[in-house]
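Fig. S4 source data, part A: sequence.
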Amino acid sequence: NMFNNMVSQFLSMSTWRGVPREIIPWYPTVIDELCNGCQKCFRMCPTKVYEWNEEKSVPIVRDPLKCIVGCSNCANACPTKAIMFPPIEILSSFERF
């Protein structure tokens, strides 16, 4: 299924569909001003992309390359829409067959 495929892809960490992960701009951007500090994104991310800034009570994207290509579950869970991703359509330009 799709989730298992994403996990397998993450575990390899070096490529996504034959493309080096480092060149794929798929990772979250946090808009601090919109964040309410609920920590849903921080707690739900299976790959630990975020670290929590206690002082500001906002997530920090600590390791963007750990983000699973195509995943945006954290953004979907964010009640204030403080997490943004590039349009999913950009991934089609990185697919190799």
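Fig. S4 source data, part B ends here. The chain has one domain: 2-87.
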